[in-house]
Amino acid sequence: MGNTSALGANEEAVRRVAAWIRDSRQTVVLTGSGMSTESGIPDFRSQGGLWARVDPRRVATVEALEANYPEVRDFCRKRIEEIKRNRPHRGHEILAGWEHDGRVRAVATQNIGGFHQIAGSRTVHELHGSLRRFHCRECGRPAAEEEFLDGRPCRHCRGRLRPDVVMFGELLPVDVWDAVVAAMHAADLVLVIGTSLEVYPVNQLPALSQGRRVLINLEPTDQQALFDEVLLGKAGEVLSAIDREM
């Protein structure tokens, strides 16, 4: 459908995307794990990703919460430590700045580290939840991180605590999904950053927009025909190049 350019190989493509952002009234951003890897957070599905080293059935399913609860907590503890050791990168800050300037309406993210909010983004839809929040499986009331990591029961009903993330086999949160679908329908420009769009149903979202679509990713994907422009490179570097043209 559109053009594919490696960063540095086609400055005109960068200028073109910058112009689209300037002219847009409803830019919506969708980010995946490639946005977080530049902050030091490993991805899940690549050849060297997390699921190549850890069996997700043991630590990331509803069944695991029952059968392997200590192992789930230990896995989450390590992920939380990774998140706390690292910070948002320049790309996160640029997106937050564009929102502040009225150029970005919303960010939808598959990431669970909260880096968009730390960088200053205000309208963030967390499709897969957040590893910075916890709640009781039984009564749904919020819980503190240390309560979950210490293995304490819910202080209200004595139920088992869990992270506020979407496990394998669970549906995405309906309110978040509906908000993102509405944003995509209204968007006249969609920026998809750091995802190969392999996971259903999130991979269906960009096609909901009737506007222009831009993919920023480290590697080519099978979904490139959907996009008007594809910029290959690290998210932070590509966004910085676009920002310089704004």
From TrEMBL:
It is an enzyme of class 2 (transferase). Coiled coil: none annotated. Keywords: Metal-binding, NAD, Transferase, Zinc. This is protein acetyllysine N-acetyltransferase. PROSITE patterns: SIRTUIN. Pfam families: SIR2. It comes from the Bacteria. PANTHER family: NAD-DEPENDENT PROTEIN DEACYLASE SIRTUIN-5, MITOCHONDRIAL-RELATED (PTHR11085:SF10). Residues 7-246 form the Deacetylase sirtuin-type domain. The active site is at H128 (proton acceptor). Zn(2+) binds at C136, C139, C154, C157. It comes from Kyrpidia tusciae (strain DSM 2912 / NBRC 15312 / T2) (Bacillus tusciae). GO terms for molecular function: histone deacetylase activity, NAD-dependent; metal ion binding; NAD+ binding. Its EC number is 2.3.1.286. InterPro entries: DHS-like_NAD/FAD-binding_dom, NAD-dep_sirtuin_deacylases, Sirtuin, Sirtuin_cat_small_dom_sf, Ssirtuin_cat_dom.
